[in-house]
Automatic annotation (TrEMBL), chain A:
PROSITE patterns listed in its UniProt record: PROKAR_LIPOPROTEIN
Domain of life: Bacteria
Name of the protein in its database record: DUF4249 domain-containing protein
One Pfam family cited in the UniProt record for this chain: DUF4249
InterPro entries tied to this protein: DUF4249
Length: 281, 802
């Protein structure tokens, strides 16, 4: 809900501003950190046995050349309830995989990564997600009532606080788009989440959704803490304008037990996910 | 409930103040054979009372300047005198008086240009360095000066003109508000005919809410805030509307590209009163709609004023302002916001030495967002009712007293969601509305100690009572914010319960003594030295964690968790007039520190936030600087050079929440820090038909936060950001030019027209309003994108009056 309001403020502003261009800017160079992308996603209808953890390092902001993959680390995930441990095998390209993971909803897991003699750890619960009840296209809604938008319908469970992460990607686009939502003002209601692409009239680089476009949809049920993390991250993706919150350093849940100041970027999440796609007519 | 709560009622305080008053009064010796001359000074052409005109007994040092209502009172020993009335830009007037009894004289004086062949462009008295008055850190602008300066989009803008003076900056183009001596926008008390204005801009700062045609004068207190004002720690902007022409019907107007305006004024009730009605409207939205554009922006505002003279000692004033901005994004989103105010005043002259004014003031700011798609409206407002009674007592030529009391009742409605249809998926929701009373009593003396030394000293006692009618959340360990030492982040505290307060209950009470003092020492006829100290408390706060405040930010009162801001300011100044007052120079240094300045934890969420205490940490701020102003006041060429060297920073330790705090508890720049700020403004009058104006501005870039690294996460490049405000936007600079052409200038014709051609940002500098960092959508490489609001903006306006 807040995100509606946030977007509107930004849009109001964008609608009256005229001119933007890409310029050279000098930025500071911060400490290089380990980046942990431990997204253990359990697609509905699958066993969820196959999982990947990706390790890399952060670089200077404009760097495009460095190989950031981290190899030689040890990665494991433990179910805190059963004590079962799952070892992830180093693929020597920054990816660590297992095909034996056993996801159990609402149970707590611990991630352990040992890299360069330092031990990183994170704790998270496997979250559930409600099913998508309907998927259709429309024209009237969205920010622009003349452009197509995608509607994702689902029913918010009433008994608990729910947090959602959506990932939309139009086929052919380089970058996906993320959105988060919570049920504070809509608890227990049937919800219609819409996704629309705002055409960039100045550059023609961004085009609105059109018949024939295929959009993949991923809908995750996430923890409140991860919601908080992604909420900031999403606000800061693609840049922070004049009416956005002052950008901040985002800290995930991967802490460094050996040297607390050297915390890792990234997140250890366990989520159930609906994956589907939609072709516009 | 210990703290600095003072249980006495404000009535008791008022009694205490009165005793103090009598103490002060009895300290001044009373000469038996003294008599008083009093009255009003007004403009001969339109009957407008003149504020700041000087009334002197020639050959003595006895004299005063008129107050906001044109009133003066002089007490002197029995004798024959020549009374001299002067106001720069006006011809002087003399009156022989024999002071053997109390008497009354009202004066009307005329502007030079209407009488003299040769027109001298000259600044008003208040714009020169005023040597004797202890008043310092004041920026006063005369509307005539403002109107000479180049304008953006064809509208004369008081706020943009004030930003040309030292110590006053904006927060970048495309944002509203202004910043004084490194203070935040919400630390400015903005008064339009005594009514609080909560948002000073139209269209995100493109225009100010002040219609120059309806304004008489503008005074900005950057420090040394007199005891009669309180409630904001940084500055007071006191804007007074015109009373309306009491001699004859007159119209003023302007037709511009973006907007037009019209003001009508004239006498009422057989010259016992007058009225002014002024309106403005932008029409870009109409043009956009005509062009088939769905998105539109527009604003309009309306100023009203009328007054009625009951008799020589009683006069009533009624004034109002109503302004509104509207935005539409297609059919699915609408937004509008604006201020509305109303003020009824009663001027009463008790006797020739005691002047009083009673005001009842209403003020409201609200906004609404209509979101058709999701079928809900979001509305928010702040309303206040203000009752104040101010007195000025002209005790003797050496001693004058101001005293009074005020009470402001606030009603905060921070937000409400209203579903607009039964099928809306949004539940109705109301954020807690909050109620509070801010009260103040004050006494202030202007005391001429010797011929060379004048002091101004006073005391304000302010109180703030937060009333119930809402529940207050309680947190584990009384920590609304908790430092999570494992993850190294600040988190919302754990709610452990609620205390329900009934409407009559008091949630929290605050009280503060606010001493104010300044001293002027006249070194010689042309120069003086002044020092000042002021302490000010601020009880309401604008919540904003964005780079610039938006019209949708919400005001919040102090309470259990948000403490009042308390500021001390010290200033020292040197003032000098050169070459028979043709030039003047003002130099000031200041230092101020403010306690209880809040900042926002990383990831704070303020929209729709009911428990603001979970998003903030309490800190402090400090600012210091040097301001120089050199003016040329007379001649065909007038103008000034202003330079400010300053620093503004803040510190936000973890405090009760634990941890080191924001930026590890170290000092960091506030967004309002500008190391250098140079403004040059000039006006040149070539002849009666043609004049030119120019502004040149240079400012150090605004502190911002840039990335200091990147990493891959979930298929995107994520920026990691550096310490708060540790980078800066590129320097800001621009040049504005204007040409003013008055065709057919025949003094005998009532109708006068002029063309104003303005060029804002003449060399088309792309000043960054923001720089954002993200990935190129095609290559995926990171890039920095600059957003500039105004390139070169020419404008053409036709102004007229008759």
């Amino acid at each position: 809900m807040y995100n509606y309001i946030k977007s509107i403020v930004l849009l109001l502003f964008v609608s009256i501003t005229s001119c933007s261009d890409v310029i050279d800017v000098e930025v500071q160079e911060g400490q290089s950190r380990l980046v942990i992308q431990a997204s253990l996603d359990w697609e509905k209808g699958t066993t969820g046995n196959e999982q990947i953890v990706k390790l890399s390092t952060s670089t200077e902001f404009f760097d495009t050349t460095s190989n950031t993959a981290v190899t030689g680390a040890s990665v494991s995930v433990t179910n805190d309830v059963s004590g079962a441990e799952f070892i992830f095998i180093d693929q020597n390209n920054g990816e660590y995989t297992t095909s034996e993971f056993v996801p159990v909803l609402n149970e707590s897991y611990t991630l352990t990564v040992i890299h360069n003699g330092e031990t990183y750890s994170a704790n998270e619960t496997m979250m559930t997600v409600t099913e998508i009840t309907d998927l259709y296209q429309g024209l009237e809604d969205g920010f622009d009532d003349e452009e197509l938008e995608l509607h994702v319908e689902f029913t918010d469970p009433e008994d608990e606080d729910n947090f959602y992460l959506f990932k939309f990607q139009k086929q052919g686009d380089l970058l996906p788009e993320f959105e988060v939502g919570d049920d504070e003002f809509v608890n227990g209601n049937e919800l219609d989440w819409w996704y629309e692409i705002e055409e960039d009239e100045d550059t023609d680089k961004i085009e609105a959704l059109a018949p024939g476009d295929v959009v993949t949809i991923e809908m995750y049920g996430i923890s409140e803490a991860y919601y908080g993390y992604m909420d900031i991250l999403i606000d800061q993706i693609g840049g922070v304008g004049i009416f956005s919150a002052t950008p901040v350093a985002v800290k995930g849940n991967c802490i460094n037990l050996t040297n607390p100041d050297n915390y890792a970027h990234g997140y250890f999440r366990l989520t159930e996910v609906n994956k589907t796609s939609y072709t516009f007519e | 409930m210990t703290k600095n709560v003072i249980n006495s009622t404000s009535q008791q305080w008022f009694t205490a103040m009165l005793s103090l008053l009598f103490l002060l009064v009895s300290a001044v010796s009373i000469a038996q054979e003294n008599y008083t001359v009093s009255g009003k000074v007004s403009d001969a052409a339109n009957g407008e009372t003149l504020f700041g005109a000087s009334v002197f007994l020639e050959g003595t040092s006895i004299g005063v300047v008129t107050n906001e209502y044109g009133f003066y009172s002089i007490t002197a020993p029995e004798g024959n005198y020549r009374l001299l009335i002067s106001y720069m830009g006006y011809s002087e007037k003399y009156q022989e008086i024999t002071l053997d009894k109390d008497q009354k004289f009202d004066f009307e004086i005329s502007e030079f240009s209407t009488e003299l062949e040769e027109v001298v462009v000259s600044a008003d008295e208040p714009e020169r360095a005023i040597l004797r008055k202890p008043e310092m850190s004041v920026a006063k602008m005369n509307i005539a000066t403002v109107k000479q300066m180049p304008v953006v989009l064809g509208e004369v803008d008081i706020l943009k003109s004030l930003q040309m003076l030292p110590g006053v900056t904006n927060n970048g183009e495309g944002t509203g508000g202004f910043h004084v001596r490194g203070g935040a926008g919400d630390q400015n008390l903005v008064l339009l005919d005594e009514a609080i204005i909560y948002n000073t801009s139209h269209m995100f700062g493109f225009f100010s809410v002040f219609n120059a045609d309806a304004i008489k004068d503008v005074k900005l207190y950057k420090g040394g805030i007199p005891a009669r004002y309180g409630g904001r720690v940084s500055s007071v902007l006191d804007v007074r509307q015109k009373d309306g022409n009491s001699k004859q019907f007159a119209a003023t107007g302007g037709i511009g590209i973006i907007s037009s305006r019209l003001a009508l004024e004239g006498p009422l009730f057989k010259e016992k009163g007058s009225f002014l009605i002024a309106g403005r409207r932008s029409y870009a939205d109409l043009l956009l709609k005509a062009a088939g554009e769905d998105n539109s922006v527009s604003f309009y505002d309306l100023n009203l004023k009328t007054n009625y003279k009951i008799n020589a000692n009683n006069r009533l004033y009624l004034s109002g302002y109503f302004g509104r901005d509207a935005f539409e994004l297609g059919e699915n989103f609408t937004s509008s916001y604006g201020n509305s105010t109303g003020n009824l005043r009663w001027n009463h002259i008790f006797n020739n030495r005691l002047f009083s004014n009673l005001s009842v003031v209403y003020s409201k700011y609200d906004y609404d967002l209509g979101i058709t798609t999701a079928e809900f409206d979001w509305v928010s407002s702040i309303t206040n009712y203000n009752l104040k009674y101010d007195f000025k007592y002209y005790f003797s030529d050496k001693f004058k007293l101001d005293f009074g009391a005020s009470g402001i009742y606030y009603d905060f409605d921070p937000g409400e969601i209203r579903p607009t249809s039964e099928t809306s998926s949004v539940n109705s929701f109301i954020l807690d509305s909050k109620k509070a009373l801010e009260s103040g009593v004050y006494i202030n003396a202007e005391h001429k100690l010797t011929d060379n030394l004048t002091a101004q000293y006073g005391l304000r006692y302010s109180g703030f009572t937060r009333f119930g009618g809402q529940a207050m959340v309680e947190y584990a360990n009384n920590q609304p914010v908790v430092y999570n030492s494992v993850l190294g982040i600040y988190e919302r505290g754990t709610e452990v319960g609620e205390t329900n307060y009934d409407k009559g209950d008091v949630i929290e009470k605050f009280g503060n003594f606010e001493p104010r003092a300044s001293l002027a020492y006249v070194l010689n006829d042309d120069s003086s030295l002044k020092v000042g100290f002021s302490r000010v408390a601020q009880y309401i706060h604008l919540l904003s964690n964005t780079s610039s405040a938006t019209p949708l930010d919400v005001w919040a009162p102090s309470g259990q968790y948000v403490k009042p801001q308390l500021s001390n300011q010290y200033a020292l100044g040197y003032f000098r007039n050169f070459k028979d007052k043709a030039y003047s120079m003002e130099a000031e240094v200041y230092f101020k520190n403010t306690d209880n300045r809040i900042d926002y934890i990383d990831g704070s969420d303020l929209i729709g936030q009911n428990t603001i205490e979970t998003e903030i940490l309490n800190g402090e701020s400090r600012a210091y600087g040097l301001e120089l102003l050199l003016r040329k006041n007379e001649g065909d060429f007038t103008g000034w050079i202003a330079y400010t060297l300053s620093k503004s920073e803040q510190r936000t330790p973890g405090g009760n929440a634990g941890g080191l705090g924001i930026n590890d508890g170290d000092w960091y720049n506030t967004p309002y820090d500008r190391t250098h700020d140079i403004s040059i403004s000039g006006a040149y009058k070539l002849n009666d038909k043609l004049s030119f104006g120019a502004n040149l501005v240079f400012q150090t870039g605004r502190p911002v936060t840039y990335p200091n690294g990147q990493y891959e996460y979930e298929g995107i490049s994520v920026a990691s950001y550096a310490d708060r405000n540790s980078d800066r936007l590129p320097s800001y600079h621009r040049l504005d030019l204007s040409v003013n052409y008055k065709p057919n200038r025949k003094p005998e014709r009532r109708f006068k027209g002029e063309w104003v051609l303005g060029i804002y940002n003449a060399y088309n500098r792309k000043n960054a309003a923001s720089i954002s960092f993200g990935q190129n959508l095609e290559t995926g490489a990171n890039e920095a994108t600059r957003t500039a609001i105004f390139g070169i903006v020419p404008s053409l306006t036709y102004n007229f009056k008759f």
